Amino acid sequence: MPLTWFPSSQLLWARVAAVLFTCTAFSVAAHGAALGSGGMADWCIFCWAFSFACSLLVLLVEQCSLQPRIPVSWSNFPVTVACYACLLCLSASIIFPVFFLRNQNYYGETRDHRIASTVFSCLATIAYIVEVSLSKARPGEVAGYMATAPGLMKVCQTSVACIIFILVSSPVSYDDHAALKWCMAVYCICFILSMAVVVLCVGECTSCLPIPFSKFLSAYGLLAVIMYLTATILWPVFQFDKKYGRRGNDTNLIAVAVLTALNFLLYLADLAYSARLVFISA
Q: Among 125, 34, 136, which Cα is nearest to 85's?
């Protein structure tokens, strides 16, 4: 009798690979990479450890068939975890070699451990990309909101906002002008609302809203697009224009401007999907 479990095993093996790769990445880094403590070292270790713990939880729950006992939407939780883990491991795969391999005078086992951590971080990122591609909703398929394109974009929006928070806080670069404070308010408000959508979907609480969820998404999406449009314009003007007394040559400031524009495009695409959802429902 032929085995019939192969289609689902692709997702299983992707999760197993992600667990092994993330475990190896942070274990090697913690054991012999001589990273010290604080700063980007802690961030990279957190990315790998958090991804490992969440992926192991998903793997154990599914293999033990414990989904009914978990107080979350299982159609939304695994793909949300995979998408966040993918972005975390991607950030670690970029940050770790930049800070701990480039222009470093370490040789021998220490450098070998750092190279190994970087390689396994990249492999973990690929494994999570495969998992997300296998878990996302197909056209015509009934799936949780977080498995759809708008749901995955919510994860990207919050992740980009977190990177922006790190860049504008070290050093603080938004307190010299009211327009820059407005940009910071945009980042915070949109992050909170996007994260609230993620929590509502994972916790199956969308019915608690006083208006239909699809209309809420459209209204919030329009608000976020308008707010991010203003931030996309104001941030570079008040950071790079010499008449406002800004230097305009800080790499962090340029990165924030690029990420602001990226999030604006994500919210614009999200709005297009949400508006389409409302029209189809109507």
A: 125
Determine the Cα angle at 143 with ends 133 and 57, to 5°: 65
pLDDT at residue 247, rounded to an integer: 58
Residue closest to 160 by CA, chosen among 98, 224, 206, 104: 224
Other CB atoms within 10 A of residue 219 CB: 14
Beta bridge partners of 172: 169
Which of these, 90, 156, 81, 84, lies nearest to 118 by C-alpha position? 90
Q: Residue 70: its pLDDT value, please?
A: 85
Provide the phi-psi class of 178: left if phi over 0, else alpha when psi is between -120 and 50, else beta. alpha
pLDDT score, position 42: 82
Q: 172: helix, coil or strand? A: strand
For the whole model, what pTM was predicted? 0.85
Identity at 85, one-letter amino acid code: A
Nearest-angstrom CA–CA distance, 25 and 17: 12
d(CA 136, CA 161): 23
**Are 74 and 135 spatial neighbours (Cβ–Cβ below 8 Å)?**
no
Distance CA 211, CA 273 (A): 18
Amino acid residing at 183: C
Give me 75's structure tokens.
Answer: 């159609």
For the chain (282 residues), the mean pLDDT of every run of 10, in chain order, is 49 93 90 71 88 94 88 90 94 86 71 88 95 81 80 93 86 83 95 94 86 86 95 90 66 89 95 68 44
